[in-house]
Design a protein that fits this description.
Layout lengths: L16 E4 L1 H4 L10 H6 L1 H7 L3 E4 L27 H13 L3 E6 L9 H8 L12 E2 L20 E4 L4 E4 L14 H17 L3 E4 L43 H13 L4 E4 L5
Parallel strand pairs: 1-2, 2-3, 3-7, 7-8
Antiparallel strand pairs: 4-6, 5-6
Helix pairs in contact: 6-7
């Protein structure tokens, strides 16, 4: 939100937040894994601490390749954590205690098991969801499209044998990057935001908010200034991420999100870390 539009007395200005990693916070059903029932039972404790905001890390259906940051369905609750009804009960109690609720949203990538990506792979280049993700043809030598590297190690490209194209993933291969050049992806996420805002959440913590878009030339990133001269980039920090991070067009996406959030007096908090 720009300074000219930001309310001077926004509810978030002096609020105290508490992060809940749901899986380990409190087990309500005795299976050894934290869940919404357990969190709901302990909300009074958080209120007694003087907490204003409860931020819940990803709870969506996920194969858990990256602790839930590989989302297979953005509009549901993983059964290990409960149901949408359990989420609603948690939210209602939080509201009753005067607590605001933020949920994590993961827009840079989905799980490779998300129906969009399964359609993109199994349906090939003609799939209606193919353009939901970032694909590129091999380099002239048949190798990867460029020198981009994953934050988690290794190349940022994995070959899809079915189509002969590579898909991009700045995180794990199980986390294919979404294509924010596609208006359909933008529309999908506006509806995802509204889905949770209509349920009553007060905002979102946006995972890797600086990583949504990439330069469409797919040019090689130059080596980092910290890399010794002549050394080959091997890890993420070895590159100057000129073409795959912190792109100016990302601001336009969040301007759209801000318009949606403003209608609900909701807050958007970006996770942004840059060298």
């Amino acid at each position: 939100m720009s300074e000219t539009n930001a309310p001077a007395d926004g509810w978030w200005q002096d609020a105290i937040g508490y992060e809940v990693y749901l899986r380990s916070f409190a087990d309500g059903d005795g299976d050894g894994i934290g869940d919404f029932a357990g969190l709901t039972d302990r909300l009074d404790h958080l209120a007694d601490l003087g907490v204003d905001i409860v931020w819940v890390t990803p709870f969506y259906p996920s194969p858990q390749a990256d602790f839930g940051y590989d989302v297979a369905d953005y509009r549901d609750v993983d059964p290990v954590y409960g149901t949408l009804e359990d989420f609603d009960r948690f939210l209602a109690k939080a509201k009753g205690l005067g607590l605001k609720v933020l949920v994590d949203i993961v827009p840079n990538h989905s799980s490779s098991l998300h129906p969009w990506f399964r359609s993109a792979v199994l349906g090939g280049r003609e799939s209606p969801h193919r353009d939901y993700y970032v694909w590129a043809d091999p380099a002239p030598d048949g190798g990867r499209p460029n020198n981009w590297l994953s934050m988690f190690g290794g190349p940022a490209w994995t070959l899809d044998d079915r189509s002969g194209q590579y898909y991009m993933h700045l995180c794990l291969p199980e986390q294919p990057d979404l294509n924010w050049e596609n208006d359909a992806v933008r529309a999908e996420f506006l509806e995802i935001l509204r889905f949770w805002l209509d349920r009553g959440v007060d905002g979102f913590r946006i995972d890797v908010a600086h990583s949504l878009t990439e330069d469409q030339s797919f040019s090689d990133n130059p080596p980092s200034a910290d890399l010794p001269e002549g050394a080959e980039p091997k890890v993420f920090a070895d590159l100057d991420h000129r073409f795959d991070l912190d792109r100016a067009e990302t601001v336009d996406i969040f301007a759209e999100w801000r318009t949606v959030a403003d209608a609900y007096d909701a807050v958007l908090i970006g996770e942004v870390y840059l060298n």
